[in-house]
Write a structure and sequence with these properties.
By secondary structure, this protein is mainly alpha-helical. Helices cover about 70% and strands about 0% of the residues. The longest helix is centred in the N-terminal third of the chain and has 26 residues. Keywords: Membrane, Transmembrane, Transmembrane helix.
Length: about 325
């Protein structure tokens, strides 16, 4: 039985809410227990690479301060914490912020899968949305304020980019630039939007001005925000140290690499033919600087690092460029 667009959005939103709520309230968080305290959060996220992810930090603090005005009895949530200094109010702030953005991401997933250029059966569309949402839920054992919001901005960019490909215009390019600007204020992984843009523009137009000019414009916006944030700070940090050896020697990080490989293989297997396979491979190739930084300075056990690559590749499996005209 097929359902209309509004019903599909309602289902996706309810699925996202259900998955996220069970993750936050059904399990005691072990991995991120040290930042579930306002003072600890401020100390960690105002230093190093984290200090440049200002949008999500401001939003989380805003939610935390809003909850301060409410007379909430946190005992009703039956929360269990590993660290004694963990604050229910801080944990609930993370939950609210990330729930809002996973709901928005669910809406964007539906809108993208309903485009004419998304060539999939009704069942495939529903399953792709569900796989993306469950994967986001699985990755949130690492509680941070900027990941889920970054998925939303990436999906929003994807949707607007497909509209731009259909009928390029200066106005649409300006809107795409604004999304890049805002998403870079949130997290520097917005660079993956540039990789996506380069993949789709090159596939549609080849190595012509229709590809080169938008990439230059979007690249200037990204670099302007990226370096602007660092130049206006007291320090100029691009990473938090070399973790390359640990990523290839520690069992948990090796498990993280396995996650990357299995979920990459999943999108390749799901691709309807050789064309989307090439798009996925090209997207990963153009995302090499991000991948290299993940291996060099990231903790690969934190599978959230692969999520933006996975979600994008998942959607690329069904994009048909012949229908973008």
């Amino acid at each position: 039985m097929k359902i209309n667009l509004l019903s599909k959005i309602i289902f996706a939103v309810l699925l996202a809410f259900t998955v996220n709520s069970f993750v936050y309230f059904g399990f005691a968080n072990i991995y991120s227990s040290t930042i579930l305290n306002y003072a600890n959060f401020q100390e960690q996220f105002q230093a190093g690479i984290y200090q440049y992810r200002i949008l999500s930090g401001y939003l989380l603090v805003a939610v935390y301060e809003f909850l301060s005005f409410l007379n909430i009895d946190y005992e009703i949530f039956k929360l269990k914490f590993v660290s004694e200094d963990s604050e229910p109010q801080m944990y609930l702030s993370f939950y609210i912020l990330n729930t809002i953005f996973i709901l928005l991401s669910a809406i964007m997933l539906v809108l993208i899968t309903e485009l004419k250029s998304f060539s999939a059966t009704y069942s495939e569309k529903i399953l792709i949305i569900a796989v993306a949402l469950f994967s986001i839920g699985l990755s949130t054992f690492v509680v941070v304020p900027y990941d889920v919001s970054s998925y939303f901005f990436l999906l929003l960019f994807f949707y607007l980019l497909l509209s731009y490909l259909k009928k390029p215009s200066s106005l649409k390019l300006i809107i795409l630039s604004i999304v890049i600007l805002v998403s870079t204020l949130n997290r520097e992984s917005s660079a993956l939007s540039l990789s996506l843009a380069a993949t789709l523009l090159y596939t549609k137009f080849g190595l012509k001005k229709e590809t080169i000019i938008p990439i230059i414009v979007l690249g200037i916006v990204f670099l302007g925000v990226y370096f602007g944030l660092r130049l206006t700070s007291e320090t100029f940090t691009t990473n938090d140290g070399n973790l390359l050896i640990q990523n290839f020697t520690q069992p948990k990080n090796i498990l993280g690499i396995l996650f990357w490989l299995v979920f990459f293989a999943f999108t390749i297997i799901l691709a309807k033919d050789r064309k989307p396979m090439k798009h996925i491979l090209l997207f990963h190739l153009l995302s090499f600087p991000y991948i290299l930084l993940c291996f060099y300075t990231g903790i690969l056990y934190e599978i959230r690092l692969y999520m933006p690559l996975f979600i994008t590749s998942l959607l690329l499996t069904k994009i048909e460029f012949s229908k973008i005209h």
